[in-house]
Amino acid sequence: MLDKDRHIHMVPAERVLMMSIEHSAARKVDSERFEIECHLKLSVESFPHPLEDVIRFTFASTVVPDQKMMTEITFVQNHIVKSIFDKNLAGDMTVCAPDDPRSSEMGITISSEIKAQMAVSKQFREVLIRNGALPESVVFVR
């Protein structure tokens, strides 16, 4: 996760106190494309302020995304986040040590893992289809 000064912090899952996901309203970026920003905030034991990261993605849609779609996307992301933390706590994910020089190459961030799982999520694709969006048009933005 990133702090306010854009420094990356690797945090063991067991030190996480709370995580929140806040979505922006869908913003029109051209005639049929919309962008959504998902702000991730992580409260960590013995850390003075929340760590933050952002997931941005665009997609094509024939209709303007509504609150129902946003709620469904949040539900899918929450399920993915729970899965990530469950795998991490079980020791099934890559381990990174802050003092290991290879960690910058091998490290995983919550946002990168969420993006990877959203890209292959059947439920995410179904939410998009149900709400008039084209799942094959999803692009994750840096």
For the structure shown, list the relevant keywords.
single chain, 142 residues, alpha+beta, 4 helices, 30% strand
List the helices and strands and how they pair.
Elements: E1 16-23, E2 27-28, E3 33-44, E4 51-61, H1 67-89, H2 103-106, H3 110-120, H4 122-130, E5 133-141
Antiparallel strand pairs: 1-3, 2-3, 3-4, 4-5
Helix pairs in contact: 1-3, 1-4
Model description:
The protein has one domain. It is built from 4 helices and 5 strands. The radius of gyration is 16 Å and the shape is globular. The mean pLDDT is 81. Helix 1 crosses helix 3 and helix 1 runs antiparallel to helix 4. Strands 1, 2, 3, 4 and 5 form a 5-stranded antiparallel β-sheet that branches. A hairpin with a 6-residue loop joins strand 3 and strand 4. It is of the alpha+beta class.
